Amino acid sequence: MPISFVRIDDRVIHGQIVARWSKLKPCNGILVIDDKIASDPLQKGIFMHAAPSNIKVGIYTAEEGVEKVNKAKQAKNSYFVIVKSPVTLKKINELGGDFGTELNVGPMSARGTTKTIGKNVSITEEEKEAFDFLQNKGINITFQLVPEETPVKWEKLKTLYTREEK
């Protein structure tokens, strides 16, 4: 069983991932793909130990992530892929990485130039463009903070971003 869950979540590995999502989707390992985390020994160490001991965690740059997601698609075990931004997934896709056709989006906190488009979801223009790119590649993008919530499609939230621009 290859990649069972692909998620954008600015908190990366936390209680909802390990306690709730991993109960619904099979998970033997988590691939965290983020250039900043991969290059920061302190953050890397924290996230390496954030999952239960039965779930392996690997932390990679976007370039390294291309090879890892392609290997994970062929693996016997199942993996979660977690990134902090759609920009990372766009880069992985452009470099030949295939992480599947389903993308779940969790929290994306407000930052400097972001626009809020949903509950705990704020995006930049670059992130909007990355979501559009991924959707145009045939990826189904849904926003859902926790499993119990009804997923909301990118098409709906995109209109809120566009409406706010005017």
UniProtKB/TrEMBL annotation:
As for subcellular location, the record says: Cytoplasm
* Primary localisation category: cytoplasm
UniProt-listed SUPFAM superfamilies: PTS IIb component
Q: Which UniProt keywords apply?
A: Cytoplasm, Kinase, Phosphotransferase system, Sugar transport, Transferase, Transport
GO terms of biological process kind: phosphoenolpyruvate-dependent sugar phosphotransferase system
State the Gene Ontology terms under molecular function.
Answer: kinase activity; protein-N(PI)-phosphohistidine-sugar phosphotransferase activity
Q: Does the keyword Isomerase apply?
A: no
The name of this protein is PTS system, IIB component
